[in-house]
Amino acid sequence: MNVEDIRRVLVVGAGTMGQQIALQCAMHGCDVNVYDVSPAALKSATEKINAYASQLISQQRMTADESRAALARISYATNQREAATADLLSESVPEDIDLKARVFAQFNQFCPPHTIFTTDTSTLLPSMYAEATGRPGQFAAFHFHQAPHVWDSNLVDIMPHPGTSPETIELLHAFAKRIGQIPIVLKKESPGYVFNAIYGAMNEAAIKLLSTGVASVEDIDRAFMAVTKMPIGPFGGLDMVGLDTIWHITQSKAKLTGDTKMQAGADWFKKEYVDKGWLGVKSGRGFYTYPDPAYARPGFLTGENSPDEN
User: What is the rounded distance in angstroms from the CA atom of residue 15 to the CA atom of residue 284?
Assistant: First the structure.
């Protein structure tokens, strides 16, 4: 199969990353089917994808006509058999090995033999469930970094497992470029890829400083922003990602490594934020309150404005 033959993309999982992957592929001419077991999740995904498209129009990154054409290429399904006619499958379900293995095994029954299977996992390794796909040679991690507020960060990690065929790696590299991404091909499996390994270590350090009472949310972000000259700090960034997503990633990593300190941090994080429904931007409250977070107000760096009361 050549890269031009990838015309139909199946996105499994209608969460934040699934939504963004779907729109990215549709913007570059692919017909996209978004699958999820939950009709409510698909309804929410439709609304958010439309909102992302409107945001891109307002940023003059696409025209209204281009937006309508892209959205018309996206369909939604809760039936696996109906959704399975695809040239490439992109999986974005929660970070659970058994769940991912089960999803791939199910779609292996329905997808055509030529379909390339990919996973957007943030913390797991593709070799952990490659055999469950039924087509390990046609399977690799294909991990996106997009976020609704930073559409310029067009980077995708291609992480093969030992059984991934060279042809699959080459095809994914070409497809990444075709849909406007910068492909990064890893030479071997490594948790967190490249950027996430660095970014995750920073976030773990920030959360440890907070959970052990060393400094406040605002001061930790203020320190990072002042030194790096970045417009957002670790906690503002985590709010953008979604605190439930961060908890799932941390919990999964703690279980895989058996790290008791990391597990304690995950438990604290869940109790103090996730269990309260403080999930970040999408819930209106996380480490900061939205739509007017303290870090975005004039005077934040010098401590002259009022901090959020969390």
Answer: 17
- Report how far apart, in Å, the C-alpha atoms of 5 and of each of 19, 73, 86, 142, 246 are: 23, 16, 11, 18, 36
**Does residue 291 have a cis peptide bond before it, meaning omega lies within 30 degrees of 0?**
yes
> How many angstroms separate the Cα of 255 from the Cα of each of 241, 266, 273?
21, 10, 20
Q: Write the pLDDT tens digit of every residue in 82-138.
A: 999 999 999 999 888 999 999 999 999 999 999 999 999 988 999 999 999 999 999
Its CATH architecture, for the domain 195-296, is: Orthogonal Bundle (1.10)
To the question of domain 3-185 being in CATH 3.30.565.10, the answer is: no
At 141, which amino acid appears?
A
- Tell me whether strands 182-185 and 155-160 are parallel, antiparallel or unpaired: parallel
Which of 19, 121, 145, 25 is CA-nearest to residue 73?
A: 25
Q: What is the pLDDT of residues 202-218, one digit of tens each?
A: 998 999 899 889 999 99
* Residue-level pLDDT at 200: 85
